[in-house]
Design a protein that fits this description.
Alpha-Beta Plaits; nine-stranded mixed β-sheet
Length: 237
């Protein structure tokens, strides 16, 4: 009979990856399935759970929203034998178009999971500006937003939310920072940077924050540029 120690994964990896076009519409389950595919095709023994229906031992630091570019996402993977950096690189080179591994490294089993350390996410969002809306008007709107005690908004059902989560909520606890990065008046565009809370209890969404600004701007394209942790995982340092 196999001992409990022998049945434990031999190696733990943290993988830093990005999702860009043409993979923006890939659902979270599809992204995980593609990692399973490349590991299996490369003969890397991805560890499985001991449940009646074993599942691959993969864990994302954060849920993956559909439709926006993602950079600096963290995936943890456990394997039943020691694998090399070259094996990992060769396997992940075969990911679907738009999924790119930026870095990967073995980490100690005792490190807290990246998901348990997640605190917030940083976004960049391109917005269109209404007539007469300049940098001063946007900065003033940001100051008002950050000074507000409450920001009434709607909780909308996302990929991992339940219908019972829908309804009115206060957006203010989700907002850590908002700043104007640049303005392009001739083309009626501006770029905002936001740091929004993101943890096991939920997270802020950049499009909701844009709607909460008391100025004529509309969200166009959002990018989640990085995840922010209480204790940064080795792969994201």
């Amino acid at each position: 009979m196999e001992s409990p120690a022998a049945s434990q994964p031999r190696q733990r990896w943290q993988i830093l990856f990005a999702r860009t076009e043409p993979a923006l519409r890939l659902r979270q389950a599809d992204v995980l399935a593609d990692f399973v595919r490349v590991f299996d095709e490369a003969g890397l023994p991805l560890s499985r759970s001991a449940a009646a229906k074993p599942k691959p031992r993969l864990k994302l630091a954060a849920n993956l929203p559909i439709g926006i570019e993602l950079r600096g996402e963290v995936l943890e993977a456990w394997f039943d034998r020691l694998i090399t950096v070259d094996e990992m690189r060769q396997a992940t080179d075969s990911l679907a178009a738009g999924l790119t591994v930026e870095d990967a490294r073995e980490v100690w089993h005792g490190f807290p999971s990246a998901a348990s350390q997640l605190r917030a996410a940083e976004y960049e969002m391109e917005v269109t500006t209404g007539e007469g809306v300049d940098a001063d008007a946007i900065r003033a709107a940001i100051v008002r937003l950050l000074s507000a005690e409450t920001l009434v908004g709607l909780r909308r059902r996302g990929e991992s939310e339940r219908r019972t989560d829908a309804g009115i909520r206060d957006l203010r606890p989700y907002v850590e920072d908002v700043e104007l990065m640049g303005v392009d008046p001739p083309n009626g565009k501006a770029t905002l940077r936001m740091v929004l809370r993101l943890d096991a209890t939920g997270g802020g969404r950049p499009e909701d924050i844009v709607r909460a600004l008391e100025v004529d701007v509309r969200g166009r394209r959002a990018v989640r540029t990085r995840l922010i942790f209480v204790d940064t995982p080795p792969i994201a340092r």
